[in-house]
Amino acid sequence: MPRVAVTFPYFDFFPDLRAELSARYPGTKFPDHRRVLEGQELIDFLQGYDTAVIGVQRYEEAVLKACPELKVISLCSAGVDHIDPALLRKYGIRMWWQAGINRVSVSELAVSYMVLALRRVHEFSSILRAGQWRGPIGFGTDLRGKTVGVHGVGHIGKAVIELLQGYKVHILASDRLDVSAFTDGFDNVELVSAEEMWARSDVLTIHLSKNATTIGLYDGAVLDQLKPGAVIVNCARGGMFDENALAERLESGRIAAAAFDVYAMEPANGNRLLDMPTFFGSPHIGATTRESWGAMLRSGIHGIEHAYEPEPGVYPFD
Ligand SMILES: NC(=O)C1=CN([C@@H]2O[C@H](COP(=O)(O)OP(=O)(O)OC[C@H]3O[C@@H](n4cnc5c(N)ncnc54)[C@H](O)[C@@H]3O)[C@@H](O)[C@H]2O)C=CC1
Ligand SMILES: O=C(O)C(=O)COP(=O)(O)O
């Protein structure tokens, strides 16, 4: 029987799923505070356990080294960039993970951010709070009829393209894989290079995975290839943008507006973007709906038995 330790707090919000996990694996240990465990606290918590159910949290080598009994990680997230596959191999740890599990909540957020950014709701909201009315700002723009670049056509990028159909936009999709089997199904989607997407898009939405090819991809030189006055939405991962370069271009108006859910450093205290009037953001809430979190926790529970199977159903890295 696996000895299970949960090292992040969200089961507190789903008592039925917490009870299900405990019933399947008696003795399952949960943290007693609403924090993600890290460092020495994480190491101490894991002693004597061979199975960890985890969220978007780093398991550094120091943790794996100090927890030799750990054999299985069951992941409650869609992104896997916080786990180093080489380390898992080195320490003989199996991992379960379910791709695309929160595509609905992230795609809904991204499309709504496009509309909110184009309509300048964050600016109008600020002047409303300041006791003014709408005069000083002027106009926003409609999404309908615009060209939307979708960078990354995986689970979430595809869901965004599907959601955008109702808005009657033209879509420029770009991915390093051949995603034509999907995009060919739409008469308003063109599959293009990143450069063409950057040059032609009024709105650009990022749905790339974070990897060696995307970290730092959006530097000043790339931002300068964007259509002047473009709007950027990033609900994928922090670290893909040079945030200072973006702030400079928001300041000059070269980029009209940006809306981010994710940041190079999280928490994002002191991030310069948060002071920009044409920027609005949220604290990595793309998957923070009851539906997505319920699904992720369920996947974390069921992933334990899958990870222990001789031929596990899903392995992200093999
Ligand atoms: N804000 C939030 O709370 C959440 C954010 N995410 C993030 O959203 C992003 C997308 O997630 P999914 O669609 O589930 O991932 P996915 O793996 O299904 O799709 C990612 C796509 O990016 C493409 N890609 C990677 N590197 C590329 C490159 N250099 N050039 C062009 N294309 C490239 C891949 O080929 C793939 O099609 C990930 O970064 C994930 O971590 C996921 C869930 C919640
Ligand atoms: O599923 C993912 O990849 C996420 O980014 C979810 O983020 P969260 O665990 O809600 O902070």
Automatic annotation (TrEMBL):
GO terms for molecular function: phosphoglycerate dehydrogenase activity. It comes from the Bacteria. Residues 112-286 form the D-isomer specific 2-hydroxyacid dehydrogenase NAD-binding domain. This is D-3-phosphoglycerate dehydrogenase. Its EC number is 1.1.1.95. It holds the Pfam family 2-Hacid_dh. Residues 37-292 form the D-isomer specific 2-hydroxyacid dehydrogenase catalytic domain. Belongs to the D-isomer specific 2-hydroxyacid dehydrogenase family. Keywords: NAD, Oxidoreductase. Coiled coil: none annotated. It comes from Sphingobium lignivorans.
